[in-house]
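Customer ticket, subject: "Can you confirm the structure for Cytochrome P450?"

Message body: Hello, I'm evaluating your service for our small team and ran a test protein. I'd like someone to confirm that this is what the system normally returns, since I don't have a reference to compare against.
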Amino acid sequence: MELSPSSSFASLWQSPLFLLLLASVIVLVPLFYLLTSPEKKPPPSCGDDGDGRQTLPLPPSPPGAVPFLGHLPLLGPLPHRKLRSLAASHGAVMLLRLGGAAPTVVASSPAAAREAMRTRDAAFASRAPVRMAQRLIYGRDMVFAPYGEYWRQARRVAVLHLLSPNRVASFRLLREREVAALLAGVRLAAGAVVNLSNALMSYANGVISRAAFGDGGHGLDGETLRRLFADFEQLLGTMTLGEFVPWLVWVDKLMGLDAKAARTAAVMDGLLERVIAEHRERRRRGETVGDGDHRDFVDVMLDVSEEEERAGGEDVQFDTVAIKAIVLDMIAAATDTTFTTLEWAMAELINHPSTMRKLQHDIRAAVGGAGTQVTEDHLGELHFLRAVVKETLRLHAPVPLLVPRETTEDTQLLGYRVPARTRVVINAWAIGRDAAAWGDDAEEFLPERWLDGDGGGGEAVEYAAQIGQDFRFVPFGAGRRGCPGAGFAAPSVELALAGLLYHFDWELPPAPAGGTARVDMSELYGLSVRLKAELNLVAKPWSSNMELSSLAPLLHSPLLLAALVLVFSWRLIVPSTKRRPPPPCGDGSRQLPLPPSPPGELPFLGHLTILGSLPHRKLRSLAAAHGPVMLLRFGRVPTVVASSAAAAQEVMRTRDTAFASRPRVRAAERLIYGRDMVFAPSGEFWRQARRVAVLHLLSPNRVASFRLVREREVAALLDAVRRRAGIGVSSVNLSELLMSFANGVISRAAFGGDGGYRLEKAKELFADFEEILGTVTVGEFVPWLAWVDKLKGLDAKAAGTAAAMDGLLERVIADHRERRRRGETVGDGELDHRDSVDVMLDVSEEEERAGGEDVQFDSVAIKAVILDMFAAGTSTTFTTTEWVMAELINHPPVMHKLQGEIRAAVAATAIAGTPVTEDHLGKLHFLRTAIKETLRLHAPAPLLLPRETTEDTELLGYRVPARTRVLVNAWAIGRDTATWGDTAEEFVPERWLDGGGAESTAEYAQQLGNDFRFVPFGAGRRGCPGVGFAAPSVELALANLLYHFDWELSPPATRLDMGELFGLAVRLKADLNLAMRTRGLAFASRASVRMVERLIYAHRVIVLHLLNPCRIVSFRRETRGRRTLLDLVRRGVTGNDAMISMSNLLMSRMPMASSRVPIQQCRRQRGVINSCSATTPRRPARMQVVNIAWAIGRDAAAWGESSEEFSPSNVSTAAGEVVEYTVQIWQDFRFVPFGAGFATPSVELVLAGLLCHFHWELALAMVKRRRRGLTWLGLRCRCMYDDSA
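Agent reply: Thanks for trying us out. I re-ran your input and got the following:
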């Protein structure tokens, strides 16, 4: 009979000889270790030359280490608590020896955590091998992978593809469905005891499994799947003895851990194999989920794998094993984190009933009456909910001893030496309860500590903003090894918690006799630390009628009605009660009054109702009656309005620091993440963001680098005008075209080329973004009327626009990062054409490499700063250009004068390419004065952006308390007759010229901050840094529109309506529809040539893309063709054959144009505009005109008697100099051979080479051979130099 392994093992245990041998080993081996352990040498110094002069000590080590086992027996069932008590005795950094494995350093303070996860993050960035993780997760995952290339690539995939904000948002419907299932399960047991722990575990499993695998059980029922996940997480959190004492690994086998791990790994592997096979089969059938984007993790990883396979590079390949490992990472990290955080939060709330009631009140007030479902749209308003979750994470970190790290080199930690390959454990649980960091109430549950303000109703900071900045709070780690999935877990936790507290009132079951009605907070250690006992609670469904029914008698009470009438009557009759004298401002020697306040203030609403649809005009009329400084109350917000140059100078220069902050703008917070520069309050983040904008995004060099972008967009604008104009005089909606131009310039400067982002189709998105950002919401000034904004659909529209814009920006940033990873980043050379996203990514990477404590520009900050550019740049460019054209139309003499200046400047220089380029702008002084005069009369943001005082200050002798909103009426200041004279309301560009007719100031920037009569862009710390970016775009567009076209009103109108429409910027109320007449293009069309139409493309593409001067210079190094020509001549090839071969080779090496426009469009754009007269006879439209350049070049009337002779002196000046081809062609119409910019450098260089290297003469006889109708000339040559020369 064959003996099974299990029976033989049992018989071995029953053998007396085996038991005697085992006892001898256990006794003799430790004794031998104690007797023969050699004395250790002192440790070498960390980072010195080896002479011991700077030797750092090892961290202190607690006593009680046991041979072979080290400090393992000291840890007990709750290691985080024991390690905290040891740290209290031995310091924040300790050295422990856990068995025979590598030494372990434990960090238990914020300072130690900061040094390990930020200051010396690279040295602490690896992972120690974890035996159970290798058994369960293939050794190919991200969480437990050692520091190296595979880990970097895996983390990149996780951050950019699996856990990006866009991907997390795509799972919204999944989360809401799982919350609905959770609530339905609780509702079935309502009134009875609910095992909330089981319900929360099922919820967490449902969210994670569906996010990872999609819908479907994949061969396992829900309960089996739940048990599989539970076994997987239990094993992964088990500390195996063999990991620390390798020769005792047989104990783990004896306990059945290895067998259980093998079984669980096999079942999990089978599940994953089925899931991946099903996904691949579905994709093969063409049923792949589109990039809409609701793909699960497996779909995303398959996309990444296929993309890596197509790229075929040498990077890490994500095969099936890697996909399974990373998906298991998501399951292991997210399931327990979500479950335990929810469980601990509910337990803490049950033990703190007043906190739970406050949170329920906040949720129910935000969501509304019963029957309404809590959605993710509500979460942004639930600041106290976020504070509760954070306080729970502080006290109950899901993984109290973060996943262990391993040092990659000898380093130090708080002055102690940490050798390479030392295991490092960070006790997040102890750090979250450190009294030195959190105060005496560190052990108490106080969510209010996370709110700004004095414990009031402030806002809790985002989790991502807290992590990596505040090392008192490290539940998810930080630095390179920080958990990238905090953003994934947060909405799952918040939505479930909000749903449970909104729909139910919770309480403990009745306590047994002698018991206490309190949740037992004992812990159970594992992969994460959870409650030791399951959380059993009683849930009672809540209805809003329960609260309203108790108020019903009061609502029908005559006493309440009378009280309300008295309150309103009192406020109307006595609008302001007598106030106590204000405190002194400044030195206390005098008490300053508050600014005067206009009458008409209503209860609760204040002066909001008197502003009307054009607030800047109403405020100007109020200032005429009450003075240049007024105090108004918009709802509950006190607002000071400054309406004179003197007041603006005091706000923006004299007391700039006191007026340098921004108030909270609700629409901006919804759309721009609360992390931008324009709307940021004064502080360190704003200073760093402005520094980046001034030095990197909007510097003169950066603005100059976008020249090609501007010229291309201007060319597109002109083409659009011509297409819409057609033949003859027609009406053009110039407003629509100018908006497209502004969007094109800003979007391409921000994102680069279109890049597949469909920017043309995003115009509506940009328009919605600017409209919402410029909308004044009632709830911002009267919070209890915020429901009006919801009723009007503003909140829903803002949420939809924000999500769409965020998705676009995520794609843009991901594409840029991928391009940079492939090494395609545009260099920072002399011609630096990086877009704004590239620049911000450079800044972000530079900050990350520096590793300092400055503000970090992560993806959210990058998106916010880019959105700032859209908000500030698009409307400013569009409205300024629109208003200039409107004023010029109403003032024809000014327009004709300006057109004369532009056309004279172009005729004087005549640079090939686009007729008006940025090279001309410096000479167009009157153009600049017209723009300045327009900005004076029509400031893009007439009330500028609101400021907020940071302290008590004063303004023109009036007291302005701290946290007062301040508006500067730039529109009123620009029209103030006291400073601009009697013509303040008139459009007079000449006022900006000095006596000699030249412009008084060379640049807009010189005017701003020096002349406070002119503040269209503000000044001081909060002045707009983007003036230099907008100016060339406006100037170039206007110069080209006025150069190419003559403009007038469409009949029968005689004057343009200058009515205004208020928004983010004030624009014309009606679109600018103008009649245009194309100038100077009567002979500019081409007759139809059928074959040419099929072969050739648009002239605009040739000039702007192929034949611009920069492109021609870029071909300079293409010398292969010229070298080939010389070689052919040396080998005796005839001159004609050699030149043809060289020309073909040279042209074949030139890159093709990136975009093509059919010649049909070109012909429509450049059609004959109208009939015209040339010299004497009249030429009707569409008549073909031929210029014989050969005859003109030999015209004796133009060239003299030697016109038929070859005489280079004919094209030389008196001084013997030869004028440039391009200048000659544009100025001298006796010389019209071609457009010479591309061909002439090639011709000159080849000719110079041929004449330099060879002597030329005719062959003995002229060789004339007929080849396809052509005459070939035979020449012979002899070398002037040998080959070496």
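A couple of notes from the result: The two ends are 97 Å apart (CA to CA). The longest helix spans residues 320-351. Feel free to reply with more questions.
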